């Protein structure tokens, strides 16, 4: 029996060689019809025997090319077309329907690497080689549908050879939009005071400069990196001075997996992540014999490693140092630099390695922690993952724009059941970041064709994003969403919990505006997408000097000691002058932040820096020093609806044990206190969220205590647990709440 079917496919189905794949499947089953890319997804019309059609549909799902993901696949029967005699790939057109997401940027695939190293190949050592299933995607695309004309490759005219590959469905480069070769594609240039060189010479000289300890700004996929030989301590410290990053850990790029294995302990999962097309930075435990750690990640037990992911990286690593520091080319806290002139005026380095393929969208490297037996946790979700959508068809069908919080900002859109969380924008505390933020909002609306019916912002009354929204979207309902409720909802939405589901949320975090005006951050919530109640929290203590209290851990230590009644001048970390301002409400706001508790305890144990130069520095050092095998805990009893940190602080100060044990007992005590409170509350499902959940010891203890009590524990998997996921939570909450304005 001959049938004709229409199949609408949505998900990650553009930029992965999906249409040639469909062509081959149809060809194999001798089917006729066509396939085309629309703005709404991929549309297939297919005709043939019903058995062959069923097999075709099976294979469509089961043999999907790597990197693709089908979110929905809807089939309708159609009238048979007797004249149909071929299967063809039709040109892109605009078709409405389910929304689609473009594939994220991908590493250079093994096939392209092989060609690149083959002296007989016409793309031998060509730094911009790519194919249908690899290369830049999101960062070069200005609008959908994904086509050569909508990318920054539009200005390069294909040579005859490239054109032939591009139009032949049997080649590896059929409709590879960024297709290029030395004949027709982008070129490389090295610029410095003494040098100017192009292409192969530029590569050669750059490798030499790096080997000589020079700092080179290298244009990559999502922006500039600052590169320096990681084994050269003097060169690295020069880079640190340049970036004003005295202690912040730097990511390194290892020539290959073997080099990476010599630095950090890699689990199977961690290696798979390193080798995946997204090619993120993987944070893993530093090996004891790793010599570079003392200047790359001082005082920490984790190091961020990645592998070369562009052809250019491979060619550089082949010739240059086998281990490079590769850090985002930006000034401290500012967004990553993407254009050549900007780089030349902003980054004060020895040389620039640039090329003429424009970056349309900046995208930092993604960072994923994958250490010990723990599950991978996103620290930063950006290149390689953005703009992959999360299916949120279970939420009410509303169009929402969500603007995130103050730190680690991302923008999210929810539209037609698809939740898209944008790239990492950094902290909204400088004009360049605010500019990038405004641009990102516009671009995400245009790119996703979203016309929001409401805008969700953080409840903080004078957040930059909130003020921006009031101005830019004055005609739309503005919903201010409480920060920790958004953390709760972010984990709920990625686990596709239902609208009726009620969960407990243990949200351990740095900073979020509380509904009572205090700074929240050690919270026990009971809630759903549409509402929440605060069931408990860490005891309020003053945060001496407000923002200063967040960067000087000694201030929090003093506040905690004073609160516990054991502040005395005999305690070295205690500061009388700071204790004196604790009582002044306007100077020292109250906080229940778990992040600040970590800061204070790190200072008490002597592992905190005087001044934190990056967020979570003291906490990371406290975790690094803690003994992972220690099982006992300091008490953190429940007093009404608060966890009484005074008891914990007194136990910690009375304990004469070594620092690793005391640090571990603190972690365990904090986890046990919250677990107990959650277990007493009833509902059997618990969400763990907030920036502190990147802490593996804390997360592990919470999970084991809660699961031992028969509770189901949900953690952040596809989004970061920290503020990078706030926009996702805000969008979900906004979609579920009646638009009443004010706090949800
Ligand atoms: Zn390839
Ligand atoms: Zn060409
Ligand atoms: Fe937060």
Q: The CATH topology of the domain at 188-379 is what?
A: DHBP synthase
The radius of gyration is 27 Å
Can you tell me the residue ranges where pLDDT is under 50 for at least 5 consecutive residues?
Answer: 94-100, 740-744
Q: Indicate the proportion of strand residues.
A: 15-25%
CATH architecture label name of the domain at 188-379: Alpha-Beta Complex
Ligand identities: zinc ion, fe (iii) ion
User: How would you name the CATH homologous superfamily of the domain at 188-379?
Assistant: DHBP synthase
User: What is the total tally of β strands?
Assistant: 32
Helix count equals: 23
Write the layout of secondary structure elements.
Layout: E1 2-14, H1 18-28, E2 32-38, E3 41-49, H2 50-62, E4 69-78, E5 87-89, E6 101-102, H3 110-116, H4 160-167, E7 188-192, E8 196-198, H5 199-211, E9 216-219, E10 224-229, H6 233-243, E11 252-254, H7 257-263, H8 268-274, E12 281-285, H9 293-296, E13 302-306, H10 311-319, E14 323-328, H11 340-346, E15 351-355, E16 367-369, E17 377-380, E18 389-391, E19 400-402, E20 412-415, E21 418-421, H12 431-447, E22 454-458, H13 464-472, E23 478-481, H14 483-494, E24 503-513, E25 519-527, E26 532-538, E27 541-542, H15 547-551, H16 553-563, H17 576-581, E28 590-591, H18 594-604, H19 617-625, E29 638-639, E30 642-643, H20 645-654, H21 659-681, E31 685-689, H22 696-708, E32 712-715, H23 726-736
Parallel strand pairs: 1-6, 2-5, 9-15, 11-13, 12-16, 19-22, 22-23, 24-31, 26-30, 31-32
Antiparallel strand pairs: 1-3, 1-4, 2-3, 7-8, 7-15, 9-10, 10-14, 11-14, 12-13, 16-17, 18-21, 19-20, 20-21, 24-25, 25-26, 27-28, 29-30
The chain binds zinc ion (2 copies) and fe (iii) ion (FE).
One zinc ion binds near residues 159, 181 and 184.
């Amino acid at each position: 029996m001959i049938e004709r079917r229409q199949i609408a496919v949505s998900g990650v189905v553009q930029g992965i060689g999906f249409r040639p794949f469909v062509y081959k499947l149809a060809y194999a089953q001798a089917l006729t019809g066509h396939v085309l890319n629309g703005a709404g997804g991929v549309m297939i019309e297919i005709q043939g025997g019903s058995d062959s059609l069923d097999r075709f549909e099976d294979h469509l799902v089961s043999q999907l090319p790597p990197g693709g993901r089908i979110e929905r696949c809807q089939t309708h029967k159609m009238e048979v077309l007797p004249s149909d005699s071929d299967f063809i790939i039709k040109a892109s057109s605009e078709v409405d329907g389910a929304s689609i997401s473009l594939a994220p940027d991908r590493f250079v695939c093994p096939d392209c690497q092989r060609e690149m190293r083959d002296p007989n190949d016409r793309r031998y050592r060509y730094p911009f080689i790519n194919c249908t299933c690899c290369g830049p995607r999101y960062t070069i695309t200005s609008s959908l549908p994904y086509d050569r004309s909508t990318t920054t490759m539009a200005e390069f005219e294909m040579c005859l050879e490239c054109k032939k590959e591009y139009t032949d469905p049997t080649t590896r480069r059929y409709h590879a939009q960024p297709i290029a070769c030395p004949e027709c594609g982008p070129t490389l240039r090295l610029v410095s005071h003494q040098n100017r060189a192009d292409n192969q010479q530029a590569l050669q000289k750059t490798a030499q400069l790096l080997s000589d300890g020079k700092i080179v700004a290298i244009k990559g996929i999502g922006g500039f990196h600052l590169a320096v030989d990681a084994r050269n301590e003097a060169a690295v410290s020069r880079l640190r001075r340049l970036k004003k990053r005295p202690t912040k850990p730097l990511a390194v790029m290892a020539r290959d997996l073997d080099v990476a294995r010599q630095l950090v302990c890699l689990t199977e999962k961690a290696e798979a992540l390193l080798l995946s097309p997204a090619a993120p930075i993987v944070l893993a435990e530093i090996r004891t014999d790793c010599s570079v750690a003392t200047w790359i990640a001082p005082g920490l037990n984790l190091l961020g490693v990645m592998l070369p992911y562009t052809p250019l990286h491979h060619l550089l690593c082949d010739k240059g140092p086998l281990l490079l520091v590769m850090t985002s080319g930006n000034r401290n806290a500012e967004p990553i630099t993407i254009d050549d002139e900007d780089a030349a005026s902003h980054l004060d380095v020895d040389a620039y390695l640039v090329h003429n393929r424009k970056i349309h969208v900046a995208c930092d490297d993604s960072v994923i922690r994958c250490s010990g037996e723990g599950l991978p946790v996103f620290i930063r979700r950006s290149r390689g993952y953005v703009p992959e959508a999360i299916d949120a068809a279970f939420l009410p069908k509303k169009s929402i724009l969500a603007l995130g919080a103050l730190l680690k900002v991302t923008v999210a859109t929810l539209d037609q059941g698809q939740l898209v969380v944008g790239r990492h924008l950094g902290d909204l505390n400088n004009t360049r970041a605010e500019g990038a933020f405004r641009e990102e909002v516009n671009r995400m609306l245009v790119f996703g064709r979203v016309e929001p019916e409401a805008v969700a912002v953080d409840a903080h009354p004078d957040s930059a994003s909130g003020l921006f929204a009031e101005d830019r979207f004055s005609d739309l309902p503005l919903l201010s969403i409480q920060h920790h409720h958004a953390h709760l909802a972010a984990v709920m939405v990625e686990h596709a919990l239902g609208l009726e589901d009620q969960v407990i949320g243990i949200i351990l975090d740095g900073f979020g505006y509380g509904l009572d005006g205090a700074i929240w951050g050690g919270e026990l919530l009971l809630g759903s997408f549409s509402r929440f109640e605060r069931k408990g929290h860490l005891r309020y203590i003053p945060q001496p000097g407000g923002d200063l209290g967040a960067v000087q851990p000694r201030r929090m230590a003093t506040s905690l000691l004073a609160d516990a009644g054991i502040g005395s001048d005999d305690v070295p970390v205690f500061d009388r002058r700071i204790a004196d301002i604790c009582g002044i409400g306007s100077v020292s706001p109250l906080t229940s932040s778990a992040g600040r508790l970590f800061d204070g305890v790190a200072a008490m144990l002597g592992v905190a820096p005087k001044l934190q130069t990056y967020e979570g520095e003291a906490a990371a050092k406290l975790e690094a020093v803690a003994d992972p095998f220690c099982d006992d805990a300091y008490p953190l009893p429940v007093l009404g609806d608060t966890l009484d940190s005074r008891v914990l602080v007194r136990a910690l100060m009375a304990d004469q044990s070594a620092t690793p044990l005391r640090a571990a007992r603190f972690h365990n005590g904090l986890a046990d206190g919250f677990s107990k409170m959650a277990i007493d509350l009833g509902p059997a499902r618990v969400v763990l969220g907030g920036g502190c959940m990147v802490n593996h010891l804390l997360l592990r203890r919470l999970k084991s205590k809660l699961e031992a009590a028969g509770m189901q524990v949900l953690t952040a998997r596809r989004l970061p647990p920290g503020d990078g996921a706030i926009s996702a939570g805000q969008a979900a909450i906004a979609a579920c709440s009646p638009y009443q304005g004010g706090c949800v």
